[in-house]
Amino acid sequence: MHSDKIEEFTNKKKKADQGGGQDRILSQHDKGKLTARERIDLLLDEGSFTEVDALITHHYHEFDMQKKKFFGDGVVGGYGTISERKVFVFAYDFTVLGGTLSHMGAKKITKLMDHAIRNGCPVIGIMDSGGARIQEGIMSLDGFADIFYHNELASGVVPQITASIGPSAGGAVYSPAMTDFVIMVEKAGTMFVTGPDVVKAVLGEEISFENLGGAMTHGTKSGVAHFVVKNEYDCMDYIRKLLSYIPQNNSQEPPTVKTDDDPNRLDHNLINIVPENPLQPYDMKDIIHSIVDNHEFFEVHKLFAPNIVIGYARLNGKVIGIVANQPLNLAGALDIDSSNKAARFIRFCDAFNIPIITLVDTPGYMPGSHQEHNGIIRHGSKLLFSYCEATVPKITLVIGKAYGGAYIAMASKNLRTDINYAWPTAKIAVLGAEAAIGIINRKELAQAEDPEALKKELIDDFTEKFDNPYVAASHGTIDAVIDPAETRPMLIKALEMLANKREKQQPRKHGNINL
């Protein structure tokens, strides 16, 4: 008698493991894609996955849906470990009705998210879905709404990561956008609110799936994708690498590792990276790689708004978040996209106890009607808001130019930054010397017998009085002007001093960031 029950259970389990059936699995493989279960096994530590709700099914009969019942109902989910850290994971199963989201599939996902929030574990979602299941009507849409609500509940409590390895359309794209990090696979992941057919019907515009919402589009133009990778294997490697820098939840510290990189290591070549001509570009990442442990820097949002650089590294084994102007692009000027990019990164670091180090070399905010009309004031203010709001240890190093509003926005002292350093090469002022005397001394220059000689004299005078780090140091807005060679040990000492920083916030529901 019991053997019959066991046989029935075994058959159901085997059927559940097959998803949409062998033919659909082969079809998935023919497209060069792994199945949902294969993706989860690739991501998690071997043998660690425990499935939840493997036997759920939908309960609808319209459109002959009673003939299209599959265990799991289009989502495979459960929990396991990555490098022995507990995570919750769900993957849309394209072999089951195109991975469309059903009412029961949504219940499975939100159940896992509830577990993740209560147990303080990261949540990873793997997207490969045809969107809302039309045959279920509004119940499928309500399922998406429940997921969005749980995305908000989890935000700032546990890390949320999305892997886009297939299609996402309509409402399905908003859950990935509400997560902390999105990784898209080239020529596989697509995301758009309305597909190419709708775009053509409504606007008469012909555009491919890839150009409308592919990985490179979202990596370079919209900023939806934080990482663009070549295949599914790279995607899982990126998730594992990313998790190595971030904590399990907002009550824990990020993972510390032992390092053999001397905390007192000096680099006398650092000063040579910065050109003597302030108009000449250089790669800020050369400075970052020199400073951090073992020269390892894990860049985030590499393809989007490259005039600012963000990412993770370690100093003496401790995780840090880095925000740095990039003189190679737009001379390191701040614009709409870079402000949004940096602000969201800062807020994530602050939510998850990751100290922020800011490296400054910026001539100011990007001028022009395009920036003004598209809201540089509104978007630029997000950078100010996020730095002011952050209570984690904050250290700023001014390397080159720090002018005007951009000087303020890049974690200046009065935005509650803890330690502000500058190199002797720093130029801190309202305006650069040449621009400043062009305004202040306009009349004298116009009337001068030798305007070029006078201009040089005035520039030298302005530079001595204003455009250098020592004036700021005399006012205490720069705590110390440091030898560039000593940058690494000075940053590590500051982090150690700030290790037990506590900052009390005023009681409020939340601030009102200028979205």
Short overview:
This protein is of the alpha/beta class and 515 residues long. It has helices at residues 2-17, 22-30, 36-43, 103-119, 138-154, 174-178, 196-203, 209-213, 215-222, 232-243, 270-273, 284-291, 336-351, 369-373, 376-389, 404-409, 433-440, 442-447, 451-465, 469-474, 487-497; strands at residues 50-52, 75-82, 85-92, 123-127, 160-164, 167-169, 181-185, 190-192, 227-229, 298-300, 308-315, 318-325, 356-362, 394-403, 419-422, 427-429, 480-481. It has 21 helices and 17 strands.
Structure report:
There is one protein chain. The longest helix has 17 residues, at 103-119. Strand 3 (85-92), helix 4 (103-119) and strand 4 form a beta-alpha-beta unit. This protein is of the alpha/beta class and 515 residues long. The model has no long low-confidence stretch (mean pLDDT 92). It folds into three domains: 2-243, 2-enoyl-CoA Hydratase, Chain A, domain 1; 270-431 and 468-497, 2-enoyl-CoA Hydratase, Chain A, domain 1; 433-466, no CATH class. 40% of the residues lie in helices and 17% in strands.
